[in-house]
Amino acid sequence: MTEELHASSEPKTAELLRLHSDPTLLTVVNVWDSISAQVVADVPGTSALATASHSIAASRGYEDGEKIPLAEMLEEVGRIASATTLPVSADLEGGYGDAAETIRRAIGVGVVGANLEDQMKPLDEAVRQVEAAMDAAEREGLRDFVLNARTDAFVKAGDRDPGEVMAEAIQRGQAYLAAGAPVVFVPGLFDEKQVTEMVEAFGPQRLTLIGLPGSLPLERLEQLGVARVSYGPLSQRVALTALAELTEEVLRGGGVPDNVRPLN
Fold first, then answer.
1. Is 166 exposed, middle or buried (0-12, 13-18, 19+ CB in 10 A)?
2. Which of 16, 36, 157, 181 can bridge 87 by disulfide, Cβ–Cβ 3.0-4.6 Å?
3. In b/e form, how buried is each residue of 132-156, taking b as 16+ CB within 10 angstroms?
4. Contact 116, 150 (CB under 8 A)
5. Nearest 5°: phi and psi at 152?
6. Are 104 and 70 in contact (CB under 8 A)?
7. Segment 173-219, tens digit of pLDDT
8. pTM
9. Bridge partners of 150?
């Protein structure tokens, strides 16, 4: 990392960590390119940005799941980081085969936090990946790098007993925290009892979730001690839904709605 980039990244790293550890819930609407980053950053109250790997891949014609070349992903992530003065966290999927090197390169384009999926690798392997990622960040001078260590326990649960899946998610999350990750991301649609169980297991302001249709209200998640809620590919889907609806309206003989704002 250049000295100039390090000078700007270090305070952003500290701020992103503070935003996660503050009792006020951090909400992050995910972005996928420079203009979406600028639009979200310009909304009053926005304090941090996060990229969505699914959305970046889709915008470049790739399917999700590390199908997009890492160089292309990091190119877009770097453009997003350059488009704002806010701290940016990058969704780096499962680390593209070398989590430590991927984290190092991501820090080099300006990010100060990252999502890293365990993809349900054997637990010892997944823990080593978290340790390697945090070590790489420290070597780059970002001791407070906000690794959002994701477990796919529920994503890949299939028809397993929910209680068993919860126990595994908690075991993995606790292991990632012990390995140095400041927060754990457990994607899924949860009721209040499940959220409470995870917060009690990890500690307050250690659990991050995704906002899905039917999720608990943000106010209640804050009261329960959740650190952060992000929206993954859903923000892009909202934008694409608006585009599809405009197209449908035009094909019906209509036009542009009156509430359109000149945001670009």
1. buried
2. 16
3. bbbebbeebbbebbbbbbbbbbbbe
4. yes
5. -95, 25
6. no
7. 999 999 999 999 999 999 999 999 999 999 999 999 999 999 999 99
8. 0.95
9. 117, 185
